[in-house]
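Record type: monomer structure entry
Structure origin: computed from sequence
Chain ID: A
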Amino acid sequence: MKHRFTVEYEIDCPVAIAVAVYLDAEHYVFLHKKYSDTYEVLSYEPATRKIFIRESWALLGLRIGQTCMTEYVPPGEFLNYDIEPFPRWLPSIHHVMKTTTRLVYTEIPERNSTWSMLEIELDLPFWLWPVRGWIQ
């Protein structure tokens, strides 16, 4: 069962800067340190603009997290998919639910800023459907 929702907001910078910051892997740890303290680029395919990443954090002495394929579609679109738990054997919501995201940056010329639209799709098993709002 697919649950879709969108998160939209304005960023106070031009699209080119928003894209450059997103493409800079170090931004993730800086902006999202509360959630993840390590962001690693495991592989990069220049021809397809695909980046395979792992983000992780420490919990009870164990390093846990997730891997994900991130794809850049010029001029201002990013796709995230194939999210898997890390380590793979660790029980995770990603074993029973698939998540894909599409982030689109659009220029707002009159304010020299960027409109950010993040579309999220959760492919949930039927038994998680009643708690989709909490998962969201």
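Annotation 1: The beta strands are 2-11, 38-45, 50-59, 62-73, 77-86, 98-108, 113-123.
Annotation 2: Residues 2-127 form a domain with the Alpha-D-Glucose-1,6-Bisphosphate; Chain A, domain 4 fold (CATH 3.30.530.20).
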